[in-house]
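Dear support,

Our group has been running a series of protein-ligand predictions, and this particular one with LGQLAAA5 is the one our PI (initials K.S.) wants archived with full inputs and outputs. We had some confusion internally about which version of the output was final, so please treat the block below as the authoritative record. The input we submitted was:
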Amino acid sequence: MKVKVCGMRDAENISELVKLKPDYLGFIFYDKSKRFVTDFPKVEIPSEIKKVGVFVNETIENVLDIVEEHKLDAVQLHGNESPEYCDKLRECHLERSRKISSESYPIKILKAFSVDDNFDFSKTEAYQNVCNFLLFDTKGKEYGGNGVKFNWEVLDNYKGALPYMLSGGITKNDAQAIVSFLHRQESKKCIGVDINSGFEMEPALKNIANIKEFKQNL
Ligand SMILES: O=C(O)c1ccccc1N[C@@H]1O[C@H](COP(=O)(O)O)[C@@H](O)[C@H]1O
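Confirmed final output from the archive:
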């Protein structure tokens, strides 16, 4: 199972975290977030750990500038970005990367959806060909980082082909429930979990011991 740790900012905290080999590290480029990255941490991140930029309704130009500047591997679109936006983002990125080097490299695109009991999963259909995977988070007051879980059973209504990550208020106490959830046939499209505020000592500073325990219990 993949583990993404989101909302990282502090270099020392990242250095400790990379020892646990998470699959993805998330950096939030949304200025209204408590985890907004102003100065990108100067720290060695092994290439096996993929860097994900989290954006909310950002312009394509700005997303691509940040991807290029920090050599991000993926973008997580956590606002109201349309399928057309996702498609254009991928096209523009390829066009830019071809100009920079003879080899173009694709970025992975994750589209986040805010889920509640009445979520209409047909909304995800138009994203199937323009994203690499989806992320299901809890619908809340803020775009993300609300620290609240949703009823994971509603995900049985997701019949799409794209894999997804489970997110929203996950804490170390959820490891067993996640294992049980993943063992069900209905959860076969779930490839991992995204953790964030449930592991924080303060915004953007993660409790490494808790993440270690969580990973061991998964
Ligand atoms: O964490 C934030 O501040 C944030 C702000 C805007 C968009 C996304 C954000 N984080 C993402 O929110 C989910 C759930 O986080 P939590 O576990 O409920 O704290 C996670 O995917 C983060 O990537």
